[in-house]
Amino acid sequence: MALISTILALRRDARILKVPPYLSAFLILVGVAWLLVLPLDEYARNTYVSENALLPGQVHTYFTGSEHNVFRAYRHEVATLDQWSVEDRSRRLKDMFSESNLKVASQKYTYHVSGRNISNQNVYAVLQGPRADATEAIVLMAAWKNMDDAINYSGVALVLALARYFKRWSLWSKDIIFLIPGDSTSGSQAWVDAYHNAHDPLTIESLSIKSGALQGAVAVDYPAGPWGHRYDKLHIVYDGTNGQLPNLDLFNTAVSIAAGQMGISCTLQRMFSHADTYRDRLQTIFRGMLSQGLGHATGPHSAFIPYHVDAITLVTVGDGWHDEMSLGRAVESIFRSLNNLLEHLHQSFFFYLLLEAKKFVSIGTYLPSAMLIAASFSIMAIAKWVESGRPPKPPNPASTKPTTTPSPSEKDTTTPEPPSPELPMVVAKIGAETTLLPTSSLEITERSLFFPLAFVLSTHFLSLLPLYTFNNLPQAHLRTTFFLAANLTPILPLLTAFLLRRLAPSRPSAQEITLIQCFSLLFLGMILSTLATLNFSLSFFIGVLCSPLSFVRMTRNYVASGAMFLGLAVLNPVLVVQVASQVGGVGVLEVLLKAAEGWHVWGLWTQVVVWLVWWPAWFVGSVVVALGFF
Amino acid sequence: MKFSPALLPLLAAPFAAAEHTSNWAVLVGTSRFWFNYRHLANVLSLYRTVKRLGIPDSQIILMLPDDMACNPRNAFPGTVYNNADRALDLYGDNIEVDYRGYEVTVENFIRLMTDRVPEDMPRSKRLMTDERSNILVYMTGHGGNEFLKFQDAEEISAYDLADAFGQMWEKKRYHEILFMIDTCQANTMYSKFYSPNILATGSSEIDQSSYSHHADSDVGVAVIDRYTYYNLEFLEDKVRDPTSKTTMGELFDSYDEDLMHSRPGIRYDLFDGGEDVARSRRILDFFGNVQNVEIDTGGQRNETQWKEELEAIERMIEEAKRRHNETLNVRPHAQHIVEEAEQMRTQQTIKEGAARVDEEADWKKQIIGAAALLGCAGIWAAGSLFESF
Question: What PANTHER family has UniProt attached to this entry (chain B) (predicted)?
Fold first, then answer.
């Protein structure tokens, strides 16, 4: 009891309100530092294949010899298709599949995004496992055009050659689907949606033949032309839409087969020369987090991952001595491993950060980082709530007591203050005891909740407007609208603050301002901690970019207000997006187009977080600061 | 009843550590799934070996929880190999699987061992052993400290197994058991045994894994485990035919820790006579079938022995006859039948080496019987007499 009452008494301690900002800052620092130590050997772990059934690299591969001639012939044939119309191309691809005695079909799809049409055709063939029960399937695909918009000649030829080759084996325990999507992102999305009957039949054709539940998908991206190109490394792309990742076992299988069996070194996140130093590892983590945080589709495989179909893309990079057959054998071996699966990949991690091809950090190690940052907002929200419940000027308990024995040194400078006569006092009687208390310590401070709640909620609600606008505006207006938004965003808080003061001069009282901040931070903290479990990277980045919001406050000091407002204006979401896209070397327009495509086609949620979480939080913080000016 | 040294083993069975009269093998694989191919190959290798050495299919209980030969992933449909050279198809044409698929459960295994089975259980699924049967129990699968997993669904503990063997001993269901197990931490599985006459060996110590020997790169999985591989290698090389005199000791001495990558264990203490007796048991006492044929070789020496024996028996018969004539002259006819039967029996036993021992027809028993009958008649007569009053 004594302990509890001591702790309860602490609530009244003025010092306790001084702690949260420091604690909050400390958590942010620890959160960032946490991420910086992850590349160290003490925190990174070596990858391992934890699914027993996979047995990667235990089989001889026979995709060699005369298969090479078959492949070359296909590659030449594919090379002649690049000038053909989509219809003709699809028909020819279908013919080539059916010549290998496979069931074949095609699918037309059209998406309307930002006023333009994304329209193409997918071609796919189904190899029924000769002794299988047709309840499961694995997918091998090569998009007609890769992510850099280059025609995937060798990739498509490899899928055709492997389809012909796989047909001759009798050991498939699952059906194998060979898919040639019309493009790298929307094509595979249309196909996967239709496969799971989650498509809009008006614009996307339903699939005429299907197989069992998809167990895995591997995409090949090898844009070498008809005369081939020897590559140096395999770049394994694994990010799915919204930062979802495939099971680590699939990635590990690909690495262990490519590196262990075929001798092809593997790389990831465009770290084409990775020296395994701290710096390179950190950079790999950072790139991985950036890709995850953006949540965009990074290849034909990305569409599969939201359907819980583990998928990766193998991209050939560099100039080296590995030829198409070694890639084909690697794919063959990966498929033999996937063929061994008895159930869905589930043993290994779904949440991880990779440092290099054979080192990773698991969620238990990295999650606290984003959680600490999210907690810093929650702590400040609680502090603001407590602060809002205090009387406007808390009387100093020390000043009410007559100092009986003033120290000699203080005597010269300060005279002992008698209890101020104007301080209202009440006499309290508890049993036989009588005591004199200042009235203010017994008063209950009412919190006026309506205005702060209405303000925060309406801000969040109104931010639906830019979300809708940017998702649906035609391409031609996107850029101008964006620059309008970029100019409007810093002005809007000032305008809002000015109007608030003008319309109701006394309205946002100090307590209401505190409560506005409290609700905004509470919302931010809760959303970010939830988001951290779904998309760690996005939560981390938004958390770091929002971190000043915990510390800004309304002050009548114009210099301080100006500095704070300037700082916030620099970190405003629209400006950050603009600067980041310029640093990243892609135009703002492309980012906006991809975002709109993501919203309508891939089911991307990043802009929801930006517009409905980040932007309102920033706006509320800026309004609070701007109120100091008026 | 001591007729001759040749009969001694048969007639003195209950008293001394004598020979067994039948051999049984219980071969159990406990794991499913394609990547456990090697466990099925282990069991089938043992199956093939005991068949080669003479145990008939009717005395082999083969438990296979999965069918690797028909798995769609098998690049060679209908076959199971235990070596990457694929010289020998273990599945072959003549294989009798007694418990297959989901029939391989802990319950079924313990019911089999203790013979607690329903009446309609076919004989092929029963272990029809008695106190003169030697049993080879071979198990393989995934195990751990004092347990062995069955089918990814349940496990048998070392205590369950020990109790099953204990109950078998109480029910006189075995003479001697050779227990072999190839699994991780295998030696813990026999650590709880308490019933006598069990010779146990396992592939690895506590906290040790058992490893596979090699993989077949076309089948794509490991095809045999190390412990089983080296046991088989010895059996193939040193026990070439069903008359081999190779002993268990020689097999145990061949175990090489460096080759097996684990420390195999052997438990002698339960065996009657301990280590020396256990080691001197022939391998065929467990892996082969009883084949106690008295071979008529050499002629001369044996013939004299035969004659001596026959004379000795003759004398015994004469002696018995004389005694019977002296004591049972009241019933000469009955006596004659007894004599003849005994004569025939002795001759048969000498020829074939096996005979049924009849209950002794003693004159004392005849008198007791007659007295009992007379007594009954007397009681009946007395009863009718009382009733007539």
Answer: GPI-ANCHOR TRANSAMIDASE (PTHR48067)
